[in-house]
Amino acid sequence: xxxxxxxxNEEIEIIKGRGIYIYDKYNQKYxxxxxxxxxxxxxxxxxxxxxxxxxxIKKISFYSNxxxxxEQEKLASLLLDISGYYDYKVFLxxxxxxxxxxxxxxxxxxxxxxxxxxxxxxxxxRTSGAISITDNNKIITKFNLQHKVKxxxxxxxxxxxxxxxxxxxxxxxxxxIQGIGGIIDPGMFVxxxxxxxxxxxxxxxxxxxxxxxxxxxxxxxxxxxxxxKPDIITIAKGMGNGFPxxxxxxxxxxxxxxxxxxxxxxxxYLACSSGISVLEIIKKECLISNAKKMGEIFIxxxxxxxxxxxxxxxxxxxxVNFNFKVKKLINFLIKKEKIFVGSSLDQNIIRLLPPxxxxxxxxxxxxxxxxxxxxFLKNDK
Length: 381
Prior knowledge:
The chain is α/β, with parallel strands linked by helices and 381 residues long. The chain is built from 11 helices and 14 strands. It has a domain at 48-284: Type I PLP-dependent aspartate aminotransferase-like (Major domain) (Aspartate Aminotransferase, domain 2, 3-Layer(aba) Sandwich), CATH 3.40.640.10. Helix 6 (157-165) packs parallel to helix 7 and helix 9 runs parallel beside helix 11 (360-379). The protein is globular.
């Protein structure tokens, strides 16, 4: 093997995707209820998306930010309009980790501070700054520990206030809903309290919507369920439906200067084409309202299953908490029932992150197959 072996992956070779389905090299069809970590927002190989990328690549695929790329302005305009952040600005980059790096940099430029507060069970990326605010010691090196970070529990906001009183905090960052941590929704009280404290102590509030954004929870951003307006929002994953793209949505309180941020590939022609296509399809096909409706149907259907003790999340970002460790169940779902689902750091949680295009019939099919997998598991000797 010539690849640096760092992934724990299934011995399945996927060669094509259509809508909610993916197919292996033997043409075996699978239901994709994971979307490659919530990346597939509009379904695999959406014809409008594919056609737009084809047309763009025939014209030009890349040039750097040393010239004007009008498609960047179109993407930014669509994004701010659909999200409701009309007076904010957009910086385009390549990934979620890069978006978080730039968000931290913008914050530090603004107040000349360096200490960050993040939350336990968080995940924000694997680059140096992003991983330093990720609560997972297994993937953090001593090199990453040079950053000044404190992790707190969502249940201990008194400690957050004590830290903010010291006036040495650059920013507070939270996911809209924690993904890899086990689909943990901080909720109305927590988000409003963080927002209040950040304003009280003049601290920058960053919300990482990389997994929870782009309509997945039934609103464009998860935090919009709670009526707050953070200073900076980071995005990626569903933004390009598989094409590498990320972004930072930035309050007008921050003033740019020449050279403040930069990227070679960020906002290139193909990235913008993918981003524009995704937003146009989300709007045209009413996928945000579909996510809300299908999420409600999904949750009600899952409640019928005795082995499930808790259902977390909103819309089509769901965490199913079983009364046992789910590793074997996930294996049954993939191998026997041909369904892709996701795991989390919580060994009892299955993550469900399907495309926003799913229909009720797909959910019914999933429930039937889940019940069969649970039966197999119960009777497996």
